[in-house]
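User: I'm writing a tutorial on reading structure tokens. Could you give me a worked example: one chain, its sequence, then its tokens, then a sentence or two explaining what the tokens reveal?
Assistant: Sure. Here is the example chain.
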Amino acid sequence: MKLCISKSYGEQVVFDGLELEIEEGKILCVLGESGGGKTTLLNILAGLTEYDGVIDGVPERVGYIFQEPRLLPNLTVEGNLRYVGGGADEIETLLQKTELCAVRHKKPRALSGGEKQRVAIARAFLSGAELLLLDEPFSSLDTARKIRLSAVFAALWAAEKKTAVFVTHDVEEACMLAHRIVVICEGKIALDLDMGQGELPRAYGENFAAKAQILAALLGT
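And here are its predicted structure tokens:
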């Protein structure tokens, strides 16, 4: 998927000819300053926000995982998964992979933050989406839960190799999950970093050289 886009809100220019290629079957992590257009980029890819320019290759089915899980409050965990489709066997497999079997009959109000986000992730994979958009889905979790949920997401991704665009403000998170990291500053790409292939998630606290480059780009140094 290739894009060249511009976007403004009144006199505020968010993107001015932003060019980006998103590789099929890979996880692209996008970092940048607050208000720098990360969520706007996801909304454009999801077809939720108008823009100027061209995007080639956007699939018909797009899944969106938000900061808040946005579960249906009157349905159980299993009911939320069944709502988006999939057979009984597929739902059972996802419940096992996301370690949700024990809470399958609980409603969202009875779940922890990590459990709710696991349901949201499972739902996105179950939806049949070819492109997954993630808007800081782990931002409300502590470090231990982030690491655990990163492993859950990586395992689900490995089974299907879906194309994913993962917006985050957490450099560690990006280094754990990305095949490629892009830093956007002032509407332009300040860094485009290939993280290679390898098994995901990578170990927490490693990739010192990559983190140094990302921080330098974020700080504009």
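What the tokens reveal: The first helix runs from residue 38 to 45. The first strand starts at residue 2 and ends at 9.
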